């Protein structure tokens, strides 16, 4: 009957969206695996392309979670039922998005010249989505170190060191280097201040 609302359309929309999310997750996982295979073979450009493609699918999922309310860009926005997503799916989306960003950061660190600003962007995503990700914090600290932002590097590396219970030698070595640089900067600043007073 025209104009009746039995809720069936809303249920179908949720099922369709859930299916779309599942399909997009599978595609993103496939691209992650392709990226991992390329990375192992030192094919960095291919790996970067694969991780980037996986992230595009993840952005599509995020669009499904938070559909547009802009009538111009999406004329059907107001007619869509809200998307119901399980907590399990949300966790999978967060973890896979973090993994793709983390793997992309690993590739970017091996490319010449290294784009440290881009590494910082990727690692910030990793640490926001998975705050206990030691590699994400380490790579963030490494990127800040090379950008000569030693305070941010120290903060990231102290977090990585805490998460690894002080057991990760790479983290400890880099943290020691950062602390030396912070000490040098402090001494330089203090000397400049003393010279001005004289």
TrEMBL record:
Keywords: Cytoplasm, Isomerase, Phosphoprotein, Repeat, Rotamase, TPR repeat. SUPFAM superfamilies: TPR-like. One of its GO terms (molecular function) is peptidyl-prolyl cis-trans isomerase activity. One of its GO terms (cellular component) is cytoplasm. Its EC number is 5.2.1.8. Gene3D superfamilies: Tetratricopeptide repeat domain. It catalyses: [protein]-peptidylproline (omega=180) = [protein]-peptidylproline (omega=0). It is found in: Cytoplasm. Pfam families: TPR_2. Its main location: cytoplasm. This is peptidylprolyl isomerase.
């Amino acid at each position: 009957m025209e104009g009746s609302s039995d809720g069936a359309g809303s249920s179908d929309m949720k099922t369709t969206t859930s299916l779309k999310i599942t399909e997009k997750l599978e595609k993103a996982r496939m691209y992650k695996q392709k990226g991992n295979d390329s990375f192992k073979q030192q094919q960095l450009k291919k790996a970067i392309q694969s991780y980037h493609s996986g992230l595009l699918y993840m952005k599509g999922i995020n669009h499904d979670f938070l559909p547009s309310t802009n009538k111009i860009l999406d004329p059907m926005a107001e007619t869509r039922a809200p998307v119901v997503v399980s907590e399990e799916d949300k966790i999978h989306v967060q973890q896979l998005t973090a993994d793709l960003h983390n793997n992309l950061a690993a590739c970017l660190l091996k490319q010449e010249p290294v784009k440290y600003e881009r590494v910082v962007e990727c690692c910030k995503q990793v640490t926001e989505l998975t705050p206990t990700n030691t590699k994400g914090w380490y790579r963030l600290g490494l990127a800040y170190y090379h950008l000569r932002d030693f305070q941010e590097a120290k903060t990231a590396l102290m977090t990585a060191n805490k998460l690894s219970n002080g057991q990760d030698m790479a983290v400890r070595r880099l943290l020691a280097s950062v602390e030396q640089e912070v000490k040098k900067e402090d001494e330089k600043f203090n000397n400049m201040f003393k010279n001005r007073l004289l």
